[in-house]
Design goal:
Blueprint: E1 9-14, E2 17-19, E3 40-42, H1 44-60, E4 64-73, H2 78-87, E5 91-96, H3 106-119, E6 127-131, H4 142-150, E7 153-164, E8 169-176, E9 179-186, E10 189-193, H5 205-211, E11 216-219, H6 221-224, H7 252-261
GO molecular function, one term: electron transfer activity
Subunit structure: Heterodimer of an alpha and a beta subunit.
Protein name: Probable electron transfer flavoprotein subunit beta
Length: 267
């Protein structure tokens, strides 16, 4: 039990190594997925999550005890963790899977994060901040599934986050169709980030060097007792059809005639 006079928040930030957002996506020759032999970087929504965790510490000062980053991926995913550490995270966990293994599905990721959270006995997790979706698979389910598994409150698509440590609650303005919605959650809670929440900082060279000395705990799915066997099977991946070029018409009558030829009529 933490002393009532001193309330401290521990933040967990899941991050994912994904194909860089600036890379032109191409389907691999086997049509089993996209070509992964390209530049990778941290999922942009996860960058926003790391930035928000660091900003919360800057605003709340000594009320944030720790920021821990966690990733699930092949050996090269440690580079993504180093980026999070350079941005301001204190420590990290790498659940390592083979290079040949498929990207884990959202439910598998949520189960893995739940197990990691429940193992944090010395520094219990009060707040999980993660991207609303990954730009490679676009599922957008992990945060919601994690909240369901833990029985915690959740606030998705956050565009503003305020934490009251003394009241043990978080107020989130979230993006919704046609406007914004303000929700209040009791800690511990899950928050997923939207684009308008913040602008991630660039890691400075001194912080990049310091990140190399910060701890990275290595785990495997077997260590956590999680089955990473896929439940979904991708049958085929193809490029979208090539867009057909348009044509010019002399006047409205010719346009109407061409529309009729194409079988398009007025409603």
């Amino acid at each position: 039990m933490r002393p009532s006079a001193v309330r401290l928040v521990n933040i967990l930030v899941p991050v994912k190594r994904a194909v860089d957002y600036a890379v032109k996506i191409r389907v691999n020759p086997q049509q089993t997925g996209i070509d992964l032999n390209v530049k990778h970087s941290m999922n942009p929504f996860d960058e926003i999550a790391v930035e928000e965790a660091v900003r919360l510490r800057e605003r709340l000062k000594d009320q944030v005890k720790s920021i821990k980053a966690v990733t699930i991926g092949p050996p090269k995913s440690v580079e993504t963790l180093r980026t999070a550490l350079a941005m301001g995270a204190d420590s990290s966990i790498h659940v390592e899977i083979p290079d040949s293994a498929p990207s884990p599905e959202p439910l598998t990721v949520a189960k893995t994060l739940k197990e990691i959270i429940q193992r944090q006995k010395e520094a219990p997790v009060d707040l999980v901040i993660l991207g609303k979706q990954a730009i490679d698979d676009d599922f957008g389910m992990t945060g919601q599934m994690l909240a369901g598994l833990l029985g915690w409150g959740q606030a998705t698509f956050a565009s503003k986050v305020d934490v009251d440590v003394e009241k043990k609650e978080v107020v989130v303005v979230r993006e919704i169709d046609g406007g914004a919605q303000e929700v209040r959650c009791r800690l511990p809670a899950i928050i997923t980030t939207d684009l308008r929440l913040n602008e991630p900082r660039y890691a400075s060279l001194p912080n990049i060097m310091k990140a190399k000395k910060k701890p990275v705990e290595k785990l495997t799915p077997a260590d956590l007792g999680i089955d990473f066997e896929p439940r979904l099977e991708t049958l085929k991946v193809t490029e979208p059809p090539q867009r057909v070029g348009g044509g010019r018409v002399k006047d409205v009558d010719e346009l109407v005639a061409k529309l009729k030829e194409a079988g398009i009529t007025a409603a």
